[in-house]
Amino acid sequence: VVTAPAAGDFSLAVTPQSVTAAAGTPASFTVNITRTGGFAGGITFSLSGAPAGSTVDFTPNPSTGASSALTVTTPANTGDGSFPLTVTGVSGALSHTAAATLTTACVGDDC
To answer: Fewest Cβ atoms closer than 10 Å to its Cβ: which of 10, 28, 54, 96?
Structure first.
């Protein structure tokens, strides 16, 4: 009996799980990638759940390493709130998600 090798795969985790940032200032997360079964493909990231008008940057994107830095900058007039974020990583037919929370605090005259 010949057993086929396990197909390569990956999983994602975001650290820290929660970040609080003043509206208009960058909030930084790290997307950690755990690769299994010899998986070495590039993973392309996207983010949902950020306040409208936010700037989202993954570096690198796609990632072939063990992590990608995620920066979310909300508009300066974003009010106080808690925003559940979902990071999605896709590589070919593989797709996985990880969750985090961004809490914003409005400061100054933009509120």
So the answer is: 28
* Cα 33 to Cα 43: distance, rounded to the nearest angstrom: 9
Q: How many H helices and E strands in the chain?
A: 0, 8
Q: In angstroms, rounded to a whole number, what is the distance separating the alpha carbons of residues 103 and 30?
A: 16
φ, ψ (nearest 5 deg) of residue 23: -55, 135
pTM, two decimal places: 0.90
Q: What is the pLDDT of residues 42-69, one digit of tens each?
A: 999 999 999 999 999 999 999 999 999 9
Contacts of 73 by beta carbon, 8 Å cutoff, 6+ apart: 24, 25, 26, 27, 54, 55
Among 81, 15, 13, 10, CA closest to 49: 81
